[in-house]
From TrEMBL:
The active site is at E249. It is an enzyme of class 1 (oxidoreductase). This is Succinate-semialdehyde dehydrogenase. It comes from Vibrio orientalis CIP 102891 = ATCC 33934. Belongs to the aldehyde dehydrogenase family.
Length: 475
């Protein structure tokens, strides 16, 4: 593995190609290595082991679990460069961005190490003097997760850290495209003292096979999933058989709104940060831009000028802002959305360039209308369609015209409008004069078909805890 100083981070890789998943670099096509596949029986055995280990893990004082989580956090920080390089090699995002994700992922471990000691119950005033009413919080048991390729470290730590802090054991199936980062962060957890049976990483012969085991096994009491709405719906249906608790962080179609009273320069900065991080392959990135007609031309001109300064290339190269998209199928889908939008009347602000491999030139499309196909679909690529609007009511109707409700953004300096629009947007998260909203200290999640549950913040650990009510009589 290229330039990885801490070889224990990749010591899990195997040479037997028949029992492994081949991992390639999307920027070069180079084979990076082979991640081990667990048989169906091995996964079932792992669940049994996790169930046994969970009892002992939960019995530890919260301070002890917090201490191991803090050590895990420190190890991620100490290995930031190696983890970032590994992520860039298998996922493609620029190195600085990958290292930023390592810090972001580590922040959840640090946060929930602290929250482990704060899973408070409460006392309730009783309806009669001979009773005492109390609640306590207890771990749900064995928790599992299925995570995506676009944030291969942060999407794991955001789920694993609260589960472990709460006293659950945790089994994660990472994306087949980016498993190396998952095994690497798990190896650091083991070095921090977290038992291997308590935190497990598994890859199966197929994603549906692992999903089916997770949703049907009676010992698994909680499933957390980040991915498409279509797959999330299937997993929820399968989990309903034995009433498993689920958390779902699903698709998005984030509007980015610029009102006529906005600071246009600030809006451009926010748009760049929101839209083009990870080559537009994020669930919360701006997907469609609504700009008031009075400032439409100014915004489009400044926005496109900024976009033209972005450098596309291998994420390990100096100065690269945009790495490759994840696969040929993803590139084809993004390109088809661009082509269809142009057929329907949209125009690229600058000349389109078709790049080789999995690289795509970032593009701003003007003349887009709300009824175009590109507006209703999650693009998941470096494409920014810009739509003009004229009044607030029209804007709210268009912004909410989607099955999704994850993230939204708007720029305005009118405090009355700020409150009105923030309350009217049907989204779980709203960025107001801000394009970067994700943080470990705030609840992350959506409404409508963008999912259920929240990750991060104090709400994140509650997803892995049951509330038990105790009624004491005879007092």
């Amino acid at each position: 593995m290229q330039h990885i100083k801490n070889q224990s981070l990749v010591s899990f890789m195997v040479s037997n190609k028949e029992q492994a998943i081949q991992v390639t670099n999307p920027a070069t096509g180079e084979v990076l290595g082979y991640a081990p596949i667990s048989s169906e029986q091995a996964i079932l055995d792992g669940i049994e082991q996790a169930n046994v280990a969970q009892k002992a893990w939960a019995a530890l004082p919260a301070k002890s679990r917090a201490s191991m989580l803090n050590r895990w956090y420190q190890l991620l920080i100490e290995n930031k460069e190696d983890l970032g390089r590994l992520m860039t090699l298998e996922q493609g995002k620029p190195l600085a961005e990958a290292q930023g994700e390592v810090l972001y992922g580590a922040s959840f471990i640090e946060w929930f190490a602290e929250e482990a000691k704060r899973t408070y119950g409460e006392t309730i005033p009783a309806p009669s003097g001979d009773k005492r009413l109390v609640t306590i919080k207890q771990p749900v048991g064995v928790a599992c997760a299925i995570t995506p390729w676009n944030f291969p470290i942060a999407m794991i730590t955001r789920k694993a850290a609260p589960a472990l802090a709460a006293g659950c054991s945790f089994i994660v199936k990472p994306a087949e495209l980016t498993p190396l980062s998952a095994f690497a962060v798990a190896e650091l957890a083991y070095q921090a003292g977290i038992p291997r049976q308590v935190l497990q990483v598994v890859l199966g012969e197929s994603a549906p096979l692992v999903g089916g085991i997770f949703t049907s096994h009676p010992l698994i009491r909680k499933l957390s999933f980040t991915g498409s709405t279509q797959v999330g719906s299937v997993l929820m249906q399968q989990s309903a058989h034995d009433i498993k608790r689920t958390s779902m962080e699903l698709g998005g179609n984030a509007p980015f709104i610029v009102f006529e009273d906005a600071d246009i320069d600030a809006a451009v900065v926010g748009a760049m940060a929101s839209k083009f991080r990870n080559a537009g392959q994020t669930c919360v990135c701006a997907n469609r831009f609504y700009v008031h007609s009075k400032v439409y031309d100014e915004f489009v001109t400044k926005f496109d000028a900024a976009v033209q300064q972005l450098k596309v290339g291998n994420g390990l190269e100096e100065g690269v802002n945009i790495g490759p998209v994840i696969s040929a199928a993803a590139k084809q889908n993004i390109q088809s959305l661009i082509d269809r939008a142009i057929e329907q009347g949209a125009q690229p602000v600058s000349e389109l360039q078709r790049l080789d491999g999995l690289f795509m030139q970032p593009v701003v499309l003007k003349g887009v209308t709300h009824d175009m196909d590109i507006v209703s679909q999650e693009i998941f690529g470096p494409v920014a369609p810009v739509i003009a609007f004229n009044d607030d009511e029209q804007l709210i109707e268009m912004a909410n015209d989607t099955i999704y409700g994850l993230a939204s953004y708007f720029y305005s300096q009118n405090i009355h409008r700020v409150w009105k629009i923030a309350e009217a947007l049907e989204y779980g998260m709203v960025g107001i004069n801000e394009g970067m909203i994700s943080t470990e200290v705030a609840p992350f999640g959506g409404v409508k078909q963008s999912g259920i549950g929240r990750e991060g913040a104090k709400q994140g650990i509650d997803e892995y805890l049951d509330v038990k009510y105790l009624c004491f009589g005879g007092n």
